[in-house]
Amino acid sequence: MLHAHPSKKPEEADVALEEDLEDDVGDVSRLIVYNDDHNTFDWVIQCFIDVLNHSFEQSEQLALIIHFKGKATVKTAPLQELKPKKDALVDRGLSAVIEEC
Prior knowledge:
The chain has helices at residues 18-25, 41-52, 56-69, 79-91; strands at 28-34, 71-78, 95-100. The chain is α+β, with helices and mostly antiparallel strands and 101 residues long. The protein has a three-stranded antiparallel β-sheet.
């Protein structure tokens, strides 16, 4: 919560500008994986564990969502964090893309 400096009038309160916050956090993007007909559940789960550091349970749930819905967001993070993870998943044969939120 932001507070005005005690010696300042309320209209002169310190305010965090949106662009200042973006510099610290980065724009959040989504890493999406699509269903395909050639990767096994076990392989997809293992990829999520190895590349995304997801638990087995989380990886299994995501694999099921992808299978039944055709795609799932497997991770949200700043673009610069997602890019190497997307590349690693694609290198392992998964169909993955990054979309801005």
